[in-house]
Design goal:
Oligomer: single chain
Radius of gyration: 22 Å
Mean pLDDT: 82
Number of helices: 3
CATH topology: Porin
Shape: globular
Length: 378
Amino acid sequence: MKTPLTLCLFLISWLHLCAQDPFYTHFFNNRSGFNPALTGLSGALTVNAKYKSQWRDKPTPSYASGAVNLEESLPCSVLDYGFHFNFDEEGDGRFRTYDFGLKFAGTAPFEAGRSLHNLRFGGTLQWSYKTVDYRKLTFSDQFDPKLGAIYPTSFIPPNDGRSFVFFSPAVGFAHQVLFDQDDKRSPSLIWGASLHNAYSLGPRHLGNEESILGIGTRIPQRIVGFLEMEFIPYNSARHYFSVRPLLMMQRQAGLHYFEAGSRLSLSRLASFGLFYHFNQPPYAGRNTNWFSFSLEFGDIIAEGKRIDLGFAYSNNFSGLRNAIGPVFEVSLALHFATSPGCRLMGREDEVGYGNIVRCPNIAASSRRKMYENIWYKR
């Protein structure tokens, strides 16, 4: 959310531009970053990494973001958990944001007729800090008005160009529905909402003051809402074809961002996504809208091991079209059909969900917790 492109962007709000969260265009491998209630939804011990860059008209990207995430689905417990680290850099001053934290989700399952429901509640305990490299910037007192020479600045950056470490937690909920447990082509639905930068306890390290200059600027809250469905129009003994429409809204400070689109998937082998991104009309000026395309490939590479690779490309066609370049994003995820957490608790650790719910896209543990059926046997 930090570029002019992100200005029209996704992730929400009332903002003061300088205070927006990093964003990713590749939603499907970063779901728990949008809503902590989706932590552990893959049904595996998962490690994934992401990298995004844009504005590549310069020798180095003007804006770049990266993330490393570890999540574990616990079939022996009502809880799932994860850890993450995010990095974001922008501009000539290398304005950087670092996020690191713990996230967790709990599940309450229930049945209604032939449908299975999961209510998921999650939270993120996250700490962040920001830095600026003032040596990369030039100030007005450095210029000689006659000679044009550049002299050393008298500006002394407070705290060596670093903010305090500040608290930026998140809370969220999600409702997941499998409409017919006995139908292999049953549609499913998941929707939810989350609040980011949700709370401040006031003092340093537990407050939400993000200012590098020490002027008390607080990071604005970010609201995210989403709805995703999955339909299976075709299913054979070996493969199935699914359609996954998505709607998402984000709001932060002065930005209101919306996304609508769909993915088409062949089993869990390959998928193609097309999404339209738009924003609420600004007070003045012109909107920036854009399309994004995603490609994902994945397969089980060995017994109990799976790899997924994703790519995303975004480009705008209005507003800032002539000022910025496209956005590129790549993600890599490794999944393992085991649960070290359950093993430490002395409980069953195998993620053997395949036979619990007879549906290729959704699986469930013996506790009726639903996950993506990434171990679907063709």
